[in-house]
Amino acid sequence: MQLLSVNIGRPRANPWKSSSETGIDKRPVEGPVAVTVPGPKGAGEVGLAGDRVYDVKHHGGVDQAVYAYAREDLDGWEPELGRELGNGVFGENLTTAGLDVNGALIGERWRIGTGGVVLEVSCPRVPCSTFQGWLEREGWIKRFTEAALPGAYLRVVSPGEIRAGDPIGIAYRPDHAVTVALTFRAMTREPDLLPLLAGVEALPEEIRETARRRLGA
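The structure corresponding to this sequence follows.
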């Protein structure tokens, strides 16, 4: 398992949403990138030096510090989208190889490189109008949701530096079976799955609260 690229956003105008700018245009960078624990959601902070978010209500903060997507899943989308998809094009900070990102367990921890960086899987990405507009694909939100290949948001457990080519290892796996993909399905098209999320402590509190309401707790 390997980190193929570390991708940092270039601010650009956002005609697809109320926020004036977006950081979805992420490009691979060379050399080491510092990984730190960001502040809470609302400040635009994320976990990688040089990057930030602009829709601060919905993105950024501790539970969405870093976003990962698998190269294998990008490759799978290329025939349908009819073009090559470079690393970072889905707005991901980390493009991985050999790692089942959507099959990762909530609370699973990844050790990246040799600098002590540990990231924890927190929740799936939910598509928005900026994502659809960026890809210039009508109906993309619906199609992405149907596929249930959302990629994973990660928390920073141990900061440090990472770079393209770093190995990725699984440092910890929890003893439940709730994956990134299952969580996404529960949050979108299959609400009957929400009760499975209620006891998963590594999920963000707002997702667990939704699951508890489903249970009537």
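The chain has five helices and twelve strands.
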